[in-house]
Specification:
Helix content: 40-55%
Domain MacB-like periplasmic core: 20-233, 433-646
Organism: Epilithonimonas mollis
GO molecular function, one term: transmembrane transporter activity
Membrane topology: Multi-pass membrane protein
Low-confidence stretches: 414-418
Shape: elongated
Number of domains: 3
Number of strands: 22
Strand order of the largest sheet: 3-4-9-6-8-7
Distance between the termini: 40 Å
GO cellular component, one term: plasma membrane
Length: 804
């Protein structure tokens, strides 16, 4: 019996070769997209799985109810209070810096070592990497302790058994206490060396409002993180009661002003994808879900093609089914037979998709900057499960439909003139065109949003601005190094002007704190800078004056603010110039001497925050953050100037260090990369969807028009023109297309409006994509169907009318 079913299946595959190829192609494309996106998802979910304590280690996020956002940082006193007052807490770790780089000197060699972390004492208690040498006990207890990865140890010493050896960083000696092996699996915790920020921890011990750390908590076994969050509110209230009274406000008001108002713990193995905010940035789970949903929709489109083509071929197999039923075949046996035929196509597509996925994986890895390989059984399991699901969905509907044919009716030859299956085919075709319409509308809106962001006036000009980052090797006084470099580099040919900013565009180094005026407080960013920085970047002055190097007060307590700062306080421009504010980063009041136009330095996914700008010498600790020099290069010989700068730097400034430099405009452009990738992926998926849909439409229209060839012959004999016949054969498909697009418009509007909500600067919902989607699909439908309709008008009249 099985052998007979297989023979029948291959006969029908050969007979309907076009439908077979379209089904194979559509399912292969759909399953390939599904596998690639599934691999991407699984890769994102696999972070921190190596950690044996992953079930008990959580990342801390603070919630700020007034501004309705989550912050990914915690202060030292809050973390210490949680350890002492919340019984569920066993230990904690504070992370202050990642991606640290230093020139390290040993008795063997000098090496520039990258990717270091600065963390608190008990880092290895929460992140127990495999120990190779030394001990984790008290590994970071002292400020001159350092732990190295096996890679860093080999770079510095040529071996891994180096505990007790000495490493010199910036004239300070560190003793190697431990050597560890980094985890093989995906992890955001891959420090090549680990040191303790002892001085900063000491300074922040009583600073409740200095949220300078990423916080990790180790909870006791079976402890509930929701209990931690509930008890953490008591710590928030304790701090508020203590500090609200001197400020003359209620604790509730204090919390609303300074926060946080609540907390959230996320397991570390969920942190990469599911946290609200982390020290490493904001996860983007929504985009991953969109991509996964779109990949599933392509598979659904392929299944729809299968259903449509199978039901359209029903008349060709009506007599076969009638004969089989007449000789005793059961309905269930027929359904199994048709399911087997479907499974063979789906399984062949599955094998082809595995090969195509392997072929496309290197390009996919390069696109997402990953190193995925097809060695995860989950990929094969879930993709094969999808094959079985597609087999059931795309096989069971036409199988049930075909198996329900009445033997007497089909053997009489009346089936071809019945209307069975028309509503089913039209309904499924409508769904297919709805999905295609959504992809066209979505692709056009994404393209317009990305183009809008790329062309938006940022309020500054980074053209020809070259940034060089330097290291603090000037006896702990980096601002003196900057001032020396500024004087020397101004003499290099091709350098037009020089400046400095703590938070240059694209750097992501925007510090923030509360800023108070009487009983009002706002959160605001702050950026230390040189006198000429704002003019250097082409920022416009709205009111007041620039900072002046000839006024000593401009290096003590005078600041400029942006328009967002004024709006946040609800002041007029005239009121601002009379205000004296108290920023949380200093003990002195500051005077506002100017207002600058808003300019965006952090990327267009967020609005311009309130910011105040001041000279780097104004606040004592800010001068220690001077770590770059900005140079505007003359346009006539940019390449030559960069070469001269590099030669000067490597020979006279930092020999042995890499030349860490970039152009500001190119660096800022990286903030758009995520959205440009979304645009590219949506365009590719859009092309795949249209290709699958149009091929399916062509095959379906071919089968349906073939069933009407006798009607065409009769009408042509009675004098109908080719144009009339073509329109008559295509108008049914045009009506279906019109209905599908009209249904898809409100759905597309809602979904794309939700996507646009993530952007602080967004386009208004355009009308053009919805109109274009309708026009484009009508044209494509007419073009595809009319090709077969035109061929039908050339029918041989004698062939179809000789028996009438």
């Amino acid at each position: 019996m099985l052998n007979n079913w297989l023979k029948i299946a291959f006969i029908n595959y050969k007979k309907n070769w076009l439908s077979t190829i379209i089904n194979l192609f559509g399912l292969t494309i759909g399953l390939t997209g599904f596998m690639l996106i599934l691999m991407h998802w699984n890769d994102e979910e696999s972070y921190e799985k190596w950690n044996p304590k992953k079930d008990n280690v959580y990342y801390f996020q603070g919630y700020y109810a007034t501004d309705k956002f989550y912050g990914g940082a915690i202060s030292y006193p809050f973390a210490e209070a949680a350890l002492k007052q919340i019984p569920e807490v066993q230990d904690y770790v504070l992370m202050n810096g990642t991606g640290m780089s230093f020139k390290m000197v040993t008795k063997y060699k000098t090496t520039f070592q990258k990717d270091g972390f600065t963390v608190s004492d008990n880092f290895f208690n929460l992140f127990p990497f495999k120990l190779v040498s030394g001990s984790y006990k008290d590994a970071l207890k002292n400020e001159n302790s350092i732990a190295l990865s096996t890679t860093a140890a080999k770079n510095l010493f040529g071996k891994t058994s180096v505990s007790g050896e000495t490493v010199k960083i910036k004239s300070k000696s560190f003793v190697v206490t431990a050597v560890y092996e980094l985890p093989k699996g995906n992890s955001q915790m891959k420090p090549e060396f680990v040191i303790k920020p002892a001085e900063q921890l000491k300074n922040d011990k009583e600073q409740w409002g200095n949220f300078n750390y990423g916080g990790f908590f180790l909870l006791k076994k079976d402890a509930n993180p929701r209990d931690f969050e509930r008890k953490f509110k008591d710590i928030i209230m304790f701090r508020a009661k203590r500090d609200a009274k001197p400020a003359g406000i209620t604790p509730e008001k204090y919390i609303s002003l300074y926060g946080p108002s609540d907390s959230l713990l996320t397991p570390i193995d969920k942190m990469k994808l599911h946290a609200e905010m982390t020290w490493f940035g904001k996860p983007d789970f929504k985009t991953l879900m969109i991509l996964f949903t779109l990949s599933v929709l392509i598979v659904i489109l392929s299944a729809i093609n299968f259903i449509n083509l199978k039901t359209a071929q029903a008349s060709q197999r009506a007599k076969e089914i009638g004969v089989r039923k007449a000789i005793g075949s059961t309905k269930s046996a027929l359904i199994l037979q048709f399911l087997l035929e479907t499974f063979l196509i789906c399984f062949a597509s599955y094998l082809l998709s595995l090969a195509l996925t392997e072929l496309l994986l290197p390009s996919f890895n390069q696109f997402f900057d990953k190193e995925m390989v097809m060695n995860d059984w989950h990929i094969y399991f879930y993709s094969f499960a999808m094959v079985l699901l597609v087999t059931l969905i795309s096989g069971l509907i036409p199988a049930s439909y075909l198996a329900n044919f009445k033997a007497i009716e089909t053997l009489k030859g009346n089936f071809a003139r019945s209307r069975h299956g028309i509503w089913l085919r039209n309904g499924i075709l409508t769904l297919q065109l709805m999905i295609s319409s959504f992809f066209i509308i979505g692709g056009l809106i994404i393209n317009q949003q990305v183009k809008y962001m790329m062309n938006k006036d940022l309020g500054f000009s980074g053209k020809q601005v070259f940034q060089i980052n330097f290291n603090d090797d000037n006896n702990g006084k980096p601002w003196l190094k900057y001032e020396r470099l500024k004087a020397e580099m101004a003499k290099i040919p091709g350098v037009e002007s020089i400046s400095f900013s703590e938070s240059a565009p694209g750097s992501g180094n925007q510090s923030s704190s509360n800023v108070d005026y009487m009983t009002t407080s706002i959160g605001a960013g702050h950026g230390a800078m040189d006198y000429n920085y704002l003019q250097f970047m082409g920022v416009k002055l709205k009111k007041g004056r620039w900072l002046n190097p000839n006024l000593s007060s401009d290096t003590i307590n005078n600041v400029l603010v942006n328009e967002a700062f004024v709006r946040k306080f609800g002041w007029t421009d005239d009121q601002v110039m009379k205000r004296e504010i108290r920023p949380g980063f200093d003990y002195r009041p500051y005077h506002i001497v100017g207002i600058v136009k808003d300019f965006n330095t952090q990327g267009l996914n967020s609005e311009v925050n309130p910011v105040l700008y001041f000279h780097y010498r104004a606040t004592e600790w800010k001068r220690f953050n001077v770590a770059n020099i900005l140079l505007k290069l003359k346009a006539d010989d940019i390449d030559g100037t960069v070469k001269r700068l590099k030669t000067y730097w490597q020979n006279k400034v930092e020999p042995g260090y890499p030349f860490n430099s970039y152009f500001i405009d190119k660096r800022f452009a990286k903030t758009f990369e995520t959205y440009q990738k979304q645009q590219t992926l949506f365009t590719i998926l859009n092309a795949m969807v249209l290709m699958v849909a149009l091929l399916g439409l062509f095959a379906l229209s071919s089968l349906m028009i073939e069933q009407k060839l006798k009607d065409v012959a009769i009408r042509k004999t009675l004098g109908a023109s080719d144009g009339t016949l073509i329109f008559g054969l295509t108008k049914q498909f045009l009506w279906i297309t019109l209905i599908a697009v009209l249904i898809s418009i409100p759905i597309s509007y809602y979904l794309m409006n939700e996507w646009l909500k993530d952007f602080a600067y967004r386009i208004d919902m355009p009308v053009f994509p919805f109109i274009l989607s309708l026009i484009l699909l009508l044209i494509l439908t007419f073009t595809v169907v009319s090709i077969k309709a035109y061929q039908a008008t050339k029918v041989n009249l004698v062939k179809y009318l000789k028996y009438e």
